[in-house]
Structure formats: structure tokens, C-alpha cells
Predict the 3D structure of the following.
Amino acid sequence: MIILGVETSAVAAGAAIVKDGKLISETFLNTGLTHSQTIMKLIDSALNNAGLSFDNVNADAVAAGPGSFTGIRIGVSAVKGLCFSKNIPCISVSTLEAMANSVDMRDCIICPVMDARCMQVYNALFKKNGNEIERITDDKPITLQELACELKSFTEKIVLIGDGTEITFDFLQKNCLNVEKFPEIFKFQHASGVAITAFRKYNKGENFISADELQPVYLRLSQAERELNKSGVKSNDCIK
């Protein structure tokens, strides 16, 4: 089983190839260029470096959310187009779960945090027992204060990962929680986590989906929609 993983949910972008659960190629870029400019080149590079073509890929996986609205749409659209063209299945992966599957540390609480602005993060909690990862909470937007209260019930070491690590770490330390940061390189999301998570889903017998079924996963309204709601104007009133 060869899976192509695509990550465009935040400022960095990347593509990775996993073969039978083993990472064999990964590309990563954090230059500030828009993902629409770079993602197809990153995919081509990941395939070329692995000595493969897209014809060798059995399924495509994408970080479908949470994250940047624009970034998620670009990644999902790219994967939908690739899967349509080759008639292969898709795998929708939680960005937060993909981050948790990047942590090579045992017996801890993994706390992925993506900066959602205004002292909020996108978060889910996972428990690492040996090599096994158990999801504890659903993906959600949460304030730092709410997260601190949630984490107080755990006695295990808490490991932060993601681009919201710095603001979260400072806040949680003030609340005397046993937290530590994963290495700096994991401040950003990686496509390898997406591909590895997808393979683990495959191993558990989870059904893949068609390109038609693949959709972005947003945990809250966009800024434009929130501003529109404040104005009291219904969104369909703006459709011409």
C-alpha cells in the first residue's frame, strides 16, 4: 500500500510518501509562498525522490482540517483533482491527529495546538501508551483557559506540538502544569504525519472515501462569516 500525504493546513506545506507504513520520501516548504504555487511541485518532488510516479499511488491522504481556511481548501482541492484523474480513493485526516502521530515519545499526553488567534487554539488530546495512540477528545477550538482546566485532570507528562506551542506553553506554565515542548521542527505540521495516520486508518479497516465525498473540515466560521453574522445580514442575502 502506497499512500501520498498532503499537508497545507497552515503556513508550511508538504507532501510525503508512505509505503506499507514506512516513510520513504517527504518534502517540506515554509517560504511564505502560497500553497497553490507550491503544492503540486512538492508532490512531484516527493514522488520523484521515492522513484515513483503517481500511477504507483494507491490512495491520497490530506489534512482536511482544522487549520487555515484557504490552506485547507487548496490541499483538499489538489487531492480531489488527483484522485478524480486516477480514480483512486481519498483519506480525510484530522490535522491534529496527524500531528499527534508525529510524536515519537511514550507514555504521555499529546496536546496538538494550532494558533486560532484571540487566545484560542485548535486542539485535541491523545494518550500515548507505548507505540499506541488513543484519542481522548474531539477536535475543537478552545480558549487557553479552558484547555488549562481540561489538562489539570491528567497526571502524565503533557507534550505540546504545533504552531500554537509557544503561546500555550507560556500560559500553561503560569498555571503550574507539567508541560514540555516537542522539538522546534515540529512547530509546523508535516505531511509525513498525514500519510502515517492514513496508513494506520487503513490497517484498522477504516473505509476510504471517494473524491466526491472528500470535504474540508472547519471547526468554526471564517472571519468573513463571523463579521457577516455580526452585521445581521444572512449569507444567502449576499448571493447574487
In short: The radius of gyration is 18 Å. The first strand starts at residue 2 and ends at 7. Residues 38 and 142 are 31 Å apart (CA to CA).
